[in-house]
Structures are given as structure tokens and as C-alpha cells.
Write a structure and sequence with these properties.
- The chain has helices spanning about 15-25, 45-60, 105-120, 145-150, 170-175, 205-210, 250-265, 300-320, 340-355, 370-375, 400-420; strands spanning about 60-65, 70-75, 85-90, 125-130, 195-200, 215-220, 220-230, 235, 270-275, 275-280, 285, 290-300, 325-335, 340, 360-365, 380-385.
- By secondary structure, the protein is an alpha+beta fold.
- The strands form three sheets. Strands 1, 2, 3, 4, 5, 6, 14, 15 and 16 form a nine-stranded mixed sheet that branches. Strands 7, 9, 10, 12 and 13 form a five-stranded antiparallel sheet that branches.
- Strand 3 (about 85-90), helix 3 and strand 4 form a beta-alpha-beta unit.
- Helix 1 crosses helix 3 (about 105-120) and helix 1 crosses helix 11.
- The structure holds (2S)-amino(hydroxy)ethanoic acid and manganese (II) ion (MN) (2 copies).
- One manganese (II) ion binds next to loops.
Length: about 425
């Protein structure tokens, strides 16, 4: 059964979503020529919001920004001020990232609203499309600060976190036109929100391996981010005999191997990553005084995640101690596993069935704003196949056909949500 909205309108429903992600993949929507780096509260972020504002307005939405610099397009339902189905994802990227991780979910939301608008449809609920500014945490140490603000779950201390240039979130947000002092105003009331739907590339190989375009997410993995500092003694690289050094470098290498060994031996989808490592002061001819590195530990349950973190931290302290060094470990962020709403998953599966798509359920190893929005309302996630499962990499790719299918599935989902709400 075709969705009630006339999706044969004269725009490439869903296909345009991919083209718009591509359009935002270059400067001025990227901070770096020749690649996509769009971090929170940068001029590239501003340029992207200005373009999204135009596209949301053209689609029939009123558009506003909240105190956390979230961009929010609203398409009123049959009764003004009705509860909203929020469709959204993030507009920020990792450094030298892909074009679809985040933006695709926003552009598909805009296409879906435009299809409703062109068909003159007004569901019994409003539909909002949201572009969250900070999901990746690629500028400041913590991530998901924008969806946390909207869910009313942002720790005010996060506003004091500083980027590599020593600029705090609060300072950058103020300069961007946000309102850190009143960040609480960004929090939505549960009674205002019906549900949250996020369409996102799978960022993994399962759908492609099974020849499927779409999948229904069951739950999002638990994750912890930690910063480790192994402290030794800086020294002259030429005059200090090997036996007299307090070099944190080899110790850090042992720590990374310990992390790998513990995570390889784990179950429950346990994974661990050291994504950033810095030698201080960082000169050819200086034995580092300290080595700092990040740890990203994830698993399908918090229990497995925490057991691995504890084991890894114990080994780090033992390795440092055995070498007469000191280890400092700071927890930067903890996100519990987040199940998707069973009823919404069912509606998504029915939508896939309408399109003759198998109802493939799968967990998400990647974090998403949906895991934070689950504090506010029931959430659902639709996965879209991506080439080779590649993501956080400029080679990230999707097909127009899959994007068009995802948009149709979202529209069918809205039809079913409407039927449920009217029952
Ligand atoms: O790290 C993640 O899983 C997400 O891409 N921010
Ligand atoms: Mn993402
Ligand atoms: Mn990402």
C-alpha cells in the first residue's frame, strides 16, 4: 500500500536527501578544504544551519534555534500546538568524516515533511525536524551535548569543557548566538513529544552483507570515554641512557596492547579504541614527560562495558607502577545502553513490510542522539545500508535508491503512527 502522501511529487523524494548531504560536504560547510570536518559551533556549523533553515522553510516548516544551538523545524499537525514526532540527527562530523553520518537523517526528515506538505496532509501530531549540533564530540571532550540539552539531561559542567584552543562550550555557544546561561530552556517537556525517529546509516557491514537496504534498530550500545595520562620525566633523547629513563612512551604502548587483549577476549559486542594519543611536549629530541591517550569502550550492556573498563584501568596502573611511572585516568563520559521502543519498532517493521523489505532487527554499536532522546520519549531508529559498512571516513557512501526507500519507509511509519494515534 502506497503511503497516503503523494510521494510522486515532482521532487526526487529521498534522492534529494543524498544530494543535500553531498552539497554540505564541502566548504563553507566544512572547516577544511578537500574533506568534511564540521565541528560544533564553528563557522561551518553556522553555514550548514543557514542552508538547513532554507530547506526546512521551503518544506513548509517554521524554524527556530534553541539555547543549545539546535535547529528545529516544525510542521504543525491538524491542531496547532499538538505533541510532536521529532525526526532528527546530528549535523556535526568527525574530522575528515563521511557526508551521511548524521546529515542523512536530517535531510530525510525534511523530505518527509515536504511530502506531507505537498500532499496537504496534517497528521494529528506535529512533525519536527532537528539538527543536533554536537553528537560526535569532535571539538569538546564530551559528546551529545545538544540532544542532552533537549532531553533535559545536560550536566552544566559540560558547558565548562574546553576545546584544544582552551575555548569552553559556554564561550563558543555564546559567540554562536546560543544561551548557555539559560540552556535549561532547550529542554523539552515529555508531554510535548510523542516520539523520536532517527534515520541513520548503519556504519557497519550487516545490511550490505545480507543484501538489505534498511534495518530496524533494537538497542544502542553502552559506551564510556576516558582520558589517560601516563606521567614520566622529560629528558634529553641523546644523553639519557635507556636504563635511566622514565619514558611513558613504552608504557603507553603496553597499555594499548592490554586494552586490545581484554577487548578481543570479551563478549557482548565489547570493543575498545584508542583514537587519540599525544606525547608531551612532543619533540623529536625530548623523552616525553607524559603521554595522553583517549579510550572509547563499548558493549551491548553497561555491565560488560564496566567490567572491561575496570580491568583495563587496573592494568594501566600496574604497567605504570612497574615502570616507576604514574597513571591518571579520567572518565569523560558514560552512556548506558539504550533500548528502542518496542511499539515503534513494530510500526517501523510494518512500514518495511509495506515496501516488501524484510524486517531485519539489529543492534547499534555506534552511539546516536536517539540514546539520549530516550530519556525524553520513546525512540525508534531506521538503519540505512552503507557501502562496505565504512563510516567516520570520507569513503562513506549510500545509494540514491536506498535513500528513497528510507524516505518512503519513514512516510509509511508516519501513516501507521497516525493510525495508532487516531485509534
Ligand atoms: O561514536 C559514535 O558512535 C558516534 O558516531 N558518535
Ligand atoms: Mn552519527
Ligand atoms: Mn559518527
Amino acid at each position: 500500500m502506497e503511503a497516503k502522501a503523494d510521494v510522486s511529487a515532482d521532487f526526487d523524494f529521498g534522492v534529494r536527501a543524498k544530494a543535500r548531504c553531498d552539497a554540505l560536504g564541502v566548504s563553507p560547510y566544512s572547516e577544511v578544504e578537500g574533506q568534511l570536518t564540521r565541528r560544533f559551533l564553528t563557522p561551518a556549523h553556522e553555514a550548514a544551519l543557514e542552508m538547513l533553515t532554507r530547506w526546512m522553510t521551503d518544506a513548509g516548516m517554521s524554524v527556530r534555534r534553541d539555547a543549545a544551538a539546535n535547529l528545529i523545524g516544525r510542521y504543525e499537525g491538524a491542531l496547532p500546538g499538538a505533541k510532536a514526532l521529532i525526526i532528527g540527527s546530528h549535523i556535526d562530523s568527525v574530522r575528515n568524516g563521511g557526508r551521511y553520518d548524521g546529515p542523512l537523517g536530517i535531510m530525510l526528515g525534511i523530505d518527509v515533511v515536504e511530502a506531507l506538505h505537498r500532499a496537504g496532509r496534517r497528521p494529528p501530531f506535529a512533525v519536527e525536524v532537528v539538527a543536533f549540533g554536537d553528537e560526535e564530540g569532535s571539538r569538546f571532550p564530551a559528546s551529545m551535548s545538544c540532544s542532552r540539552a533537549m532531553a533535559g539531561a545536560l550536566d552544566p559542567a559540560a558547558l565548562e569543557m574546553k576545546d584544544a584552543d582552551g575555548v569552553s562550550v559556554a564561550e563558543a555557544l555564546t559567540a554562536f548566538g546560543g544561551d548557555p546561561a539559560n540552556i535549561a530552556l532547550a529542554a523539552r517537556k515529555p508531554e510535548e513529544v510523542l516520539a523520536f525517529l532517527e534515520a541513520h546509516i548503519e556504519q557497519g557491514p550487516v545490511l550490505e552483507a545480507e543484501g538489505l537496504a534498511l534495518g530496524v534498530v533494537t538497542a544502542i550500545a553502552a559506551q564510556k570515554r576516558l582520558m589517560v595520562k601516563i606521567i614520566g620525566a622529560a629528558g634529553h633523547a641523546g644523553t639519557t641512557p635507556m636504563g635511566l629513563r622514565k619514558d611513558p612512551g613504552p608504557a603507553a604502548a603496553e597499555c594499548v596492547l592490554a586494552l586490545e587483549r581484554i577487548c578481543r577476549a570479551g563478549t557482548d559486542g565489547l570493543v575498545g579504541t584508542v583514537g587519540r594519543m599525544t606525547a608531551l611536549p612532543g619533540a623529536f629530541n625530548v623523552i616525553p614527560g607524559a603521554i595522553e591517550f583517549s579510550m572509547d569502550i563499548r558493549a551491548e550492556t553497561s555491565a560488560t562495558r564496566d567490567a572491561a573498563v575496570d580491568a583495563i584501568c587496573a592494568e594501566i596502573h600496574a604497567i605504570a607502577g612497574a615502570r616507576g611511572l604514574k597513571a591518571e585516568i579520567h572518565l569523560m563520559q558514560a552512556l548506558a545502553e539504550s533500548p528502542c521502543d518496542p511499539s515503534l519498532m513494530g510500526l517501523l517493521e510494518e512500514a518495511l513490510a509495506d515496501l516488501s523489505q524484510p524486517p531485519r532487527r539489529l543492534p547499534s554499536g555506534a552511539g546516536h542522539d536517539a540514546m539520549v532522546m530516550a530519556d525524553l520519549c520513546p525512540v525508534a531508529m531506521l538503519f540505512v545500508r552503507c557501502e562496505g559498512g565504512i563510516s567516520h571516513n570520507p569513503a562513506e557512501a549510500v545509494t540514491e535508491a536506498d535513500c528513497a526507500l528510507a524516505a518512503k519507509a519513514m512516510l509509511h511509519f508516519i501513516d501507521k503512527l497516525e493510525r495508532r494515534e487516531r485509534a
